[in-house]
Amino acid sequence: MGMDEENTLPESLVEKLRATDQDTSMITARVDREISETAAAQFKGRVRRRRSLPVWLATAASVLLAVFLVTNPFQDPLPTFSDHDGSGAVDIADVMALARRGDTAQADLDAFALQIVALGDSE
Amino acid sequence: MLAYSTVNNLSDNELVALCNDGDAADAQRAFETLYARHKDYVVRIALRFGADHAGALDVLQETFLYLLRKFPPPGDGITLSAKLTTLLYPVAKNLTLTQTAKASRYSGDDIDPDSLEANDGNGNDVEGLFAGLTAERREVLMLRFVDGLSLEEIATVLDIPKGTVKSRLHSSVQQLRNSPKTKDFFD
Known about the structure:
Chain A is an all-alpha fold and 123 residues long. In chain A, 58% of the residues lie in helices and 0% in strands. Chain A has helices at residues 3-6, 11-18, 29-43, 55-71, 92-101, 106-122. Chain A starts with a helix and ends with a helix. Chain B has helices at 4-8, 12-21, 24-48, 53-69, 85-107, 126-129, 135-146, 151-158, 162-178. The radius of gyration of chain B is 19 Å and the shape is globular. At the A-B interface, helix 2 and helix 3 of A face helix 3, helix 4, helix 6, helix 7 and helix 9 of B.
């Protein structure tokens, strides 16, 4: 006879063992109601919680986002400071030429213009 | 809001998850369902360890308040790694032992759980059949054969090694095998 087999009880004896447990009919509706009311008071006003991401996952996502923003391969390159109107010089007329083309953001045009002015000042 | 019929079909783990994260109505229904499933068990544990009826009801309330406080707010929630009964059993047991110890201090009586009487409904003294067992051995037998806990679960609720559970169970069964009062059951 194996150890596990030795460690079992005949069902008739289990029934006797079960009978040593006492009746639980003293649990009244009043007791149930009190528990229910206490639970209601605690959960009152609760809205469904959103599970937050694990810290390691949130950190990894932040790092990936930062790397992407810095090295974004899909970002339009900034307009180069070059002779756009073919005048032989890089000057404010090139900014005007870029503006007429209409495919350069105003912020980039401003930056270009400032650069031209700065170059002019240094000369 | 989930219907009661839906909530009733959820496992204890799913109900605990609702108590952790559900909105007010779902969390309450989930908690009430857990209570309905396990209230008899908690009271039986209290009675096993010597509580009277009023005391068992106090233990019932305290045990479920303890569980309730685990859920937010104010608690952080719980993750069940085993049956809910493995969490409820030690709480109910310890509350009962504390309560009975207090009661015996005030009354001056020592409460001996082994001396409690029970019968099988036919007037037979079933308690007498197991009278020779120590409280520890009887507890293991009840957890294994009446509550249906595995050896691992018993080890968890009693906070003892699984090997100790195994040997305690073995000794208990052997004792019943050899006892004049119970050996006939094994024939």
